[in-house]
């Protein structure tokens, strides 16, 4: 079953890692390295089963391949998960152990922060390997760049749906007020949008109400709010059989990964006349920020690259229109087109001869 999953999703490598002294249990998935070394964050999550963790890391790694390809980065896709309670304060040895296993891959995988991890955790990883980005004293928190990209995807969606990229006077429903959700609200508020927000952490909601004049609603009621744009910025699978019938918006564009629980939910969005900006197109600002650190970019250059998500999103919508396909399929085709183009490039010779 495991190899069947890897074959179906096109993965190159799956590594299970264990460190007795720290209790670390991790899984690293490398999906595709055609464009370059696999880059993707490390997620720290209390999975109910090992099978659930494997499924999640495989799915997330594949998403990173497509995200990096669509963003125009010379990176493949990978991901790591650490199984356990991410609220633990005993973090140093867990993340140092993780760094040791990342190091054994010899640069095939570069890690960074993700759900349940922080820049401080990545500093622990860096004690054991150089194949890590998102460090405290370098590019740092990628959330502002991620939010910029999501904002630009929202603007592109508005241009296609309403003929203008302006969101002034539009009501945007933001689910999840973590770092990305907060910075996205800041961008939207500055652009004149009206905000409806929710989060399981009440203090985050209160901050948005105070700073942006947002209207707060209960997490269970967020999908049924009437507005123009729904911006999911929490965990994945939020577009599903239960939530889709509740939506009262014309656009879905947010920062969460894997928003569609199943591909058919993308079909359903299309059938309901809701314009969907594919998640890994909209939220590519985070990986752009990390790539900028690896490539030595300034923060301003990373933000300028994130601004290109506007054009990329328009390109996805154009492919969808021309080929008569849902936007999530169009995004996949754009990514596959770039991977295929690079894989078919002719290798030039001579190269340094092998010794054996």
Outline of the structure:
With 356 residues, the chain is an alpha/beta fold. It is built from 13 helices and twelve strands. The chain has helices spanning 2-9, 50-70, 92-104, 119-126, 143-162, 179-190, 202-212, 263-271, 279-282, 285-295, 299-307, 309-323, 327-343; strands at residues 13-19, 24-32, 38-39, 42-45, 76-83, 109-110, 171-175, 194-198, 215-216, 229-232, 251-252, 275-276.
What structural keywords apply?
globular; 356 residues; Rossmann fold; six-stranded mixed beta sheet; six-stranded parallel beta sheet; alpha/beta
Characterization of this structure:
Strands 1, 2, 3, 4, 5 and 6 form a six-stranded mixed sheet that branches. This protein has a six-stranded parallel sheet with strand order 9-8-7-10-11-12, sandwiched between helices. It is α/β, with parallel strands linked by helices and 356 residues long. Helix 2 (50-70) crosses helix 13 (327-343), helix 5 crosses helix 12 and helix 12 (309-323) packs across helix 13 (327-343). It is built from 13 helices and twelve strands. It has two domains: 2-57 and 77-126, Leucine Dehydrogenase, chain A, domain 1 (Rossmann fold), CATH 3.40.50; 143-338, 3-Layer(aba) Sandwich (Rossmann fold), CATH 3.40.50.720. It is globular and about 65 Å long.
């Amino acid at each position: 079953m495991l190899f069947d999953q890897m074959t179906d999703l096109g993965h190159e490598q799956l590594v299970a890692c264990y460190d007795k002294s720290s209790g670390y249990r991790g899984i690293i998935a490398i999906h595709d390295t055609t464009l370059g070394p696999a880059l993707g964050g490390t997620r720290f999550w209390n999975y109910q089963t090992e099978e659930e963790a494997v499924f999640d890391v495989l799915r997330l790694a594949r998403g990173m391949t497509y995200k990096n390809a669509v963003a125009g980065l010379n990176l493949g896709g990978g991901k790591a998960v650490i199984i356990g309670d991410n609220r633990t304060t005993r973090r140093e040895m867990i993340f140092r152990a993780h760094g040791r296993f990342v190091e054994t891959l010899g640069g095939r995988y570069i890690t960074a922060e993700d759900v349940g991890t922080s820049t401080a955790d990545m500093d622990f990883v860096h004690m054991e390997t150089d194949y890590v980005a998102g460090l405290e004293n370098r590019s740092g928190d990628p959330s502002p760049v991620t939010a910029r990209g999501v904002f630009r995807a929202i603007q592109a969606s508005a241009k296609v749906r309403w003929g203008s990229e302006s969101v002034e006077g539009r009501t945007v429903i933001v689910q999840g007020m973590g770092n990305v959700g907060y910075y996205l609200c800041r961008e939207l508020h500055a652009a004149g949008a009206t905000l409806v927000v929710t989060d399981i952490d009440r203090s985050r909601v209160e901050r948005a109400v105070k700073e942006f004049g947002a209207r707060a609603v209960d997490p269970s009621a967020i999908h049924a709010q009437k507005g123009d744009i729904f911006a999911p910025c929490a965990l994945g699978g939020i577009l599903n059989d239960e939530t889709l019938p509740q939506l009262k918006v014309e656009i879905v564009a947010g920062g969460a990964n894997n928003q569609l629980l199943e591909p058919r939910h993308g079909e359903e969005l299309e059938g309901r006349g809701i314009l969907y900006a594919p998640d890994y197109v909209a939220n590519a600002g985070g990986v752009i920020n990390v790539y900028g650190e690896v490539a030595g970019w300034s923060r301003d250059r990373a933000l300028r690259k994130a601004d290109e998500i506007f054009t990329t999103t328009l390109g996805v919508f154009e492919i969808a229109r021309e080929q008569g396909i849902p936007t999530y399929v169009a995004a996949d085709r754009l990514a596959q087109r770039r991977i295929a183009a690079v894989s078919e490039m002719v290798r030039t010779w001579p190269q340094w001869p092998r010794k054996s």
